[in-house]
Amino acid sequence: MSTQKTFEQTKLFTEMVARKQDWALNPDPIFYNNLVEGLTTNYNRYGYFLCPCRDTEGSREADTPAICPCVWSRADILQYGHCFCALYLSKEFAESGKEPRGIPDRRYEDA
């Protein structure tokens, strides 16, 4: 199995993704830390950063679309201002001060 990740390594990963995509991270420190913990746990359990808000489909191949940042995040951020789990926000949404809310899970739209 792959090397274990620490909370700090996962945090750096989320910061790198946000910077590369020109997104903001969820500003609520408790919420953000819970998501980072979930990503860390999933990495250490499965060997990849499975979205902390989604269950595994049983294999890396089946989970590939849900590996952070998931394939649905870009569309969710464009439409709702944040991704499904609200880890990543558009900069405009983050600056608006609005709270992320529940959004539909695109993972099962085509199922």
CATH superfamily: Ferredoxin thioredoxin reductase catalytic beta subunit
Work out the strand percent.
Answer: 5-15%
> Could you say what the CATH architecture is?
Alpha-Beta Complex
Mean pLDDT: 94
Radius of gyration: 13 Å
- Which regions have little confidence, pLDDT < 50, spanning 5+ residues? none
Q: What is the fold-level CATH name, i.e. the topology?
A: Ferredoxin Thioredoxin Reductase
* Overall number of structural domains: 1
Number of strands: 2
Q: What is the N-to-C succession of helices and strands?
A: HEHHHEH
Which class of secondary structure composition applies to the elements?
mainly alpha
**Strand line-up of the largest beta sheet:** 1-2
- Please bin the fraction of helical residues: 40-55%
CATH class annotation = Alpha Beta
Main β-sheet, in a few words? 2 strands, antiparallel
Number of separate helices: 5
The separation of the N and C termini measures 31 Å
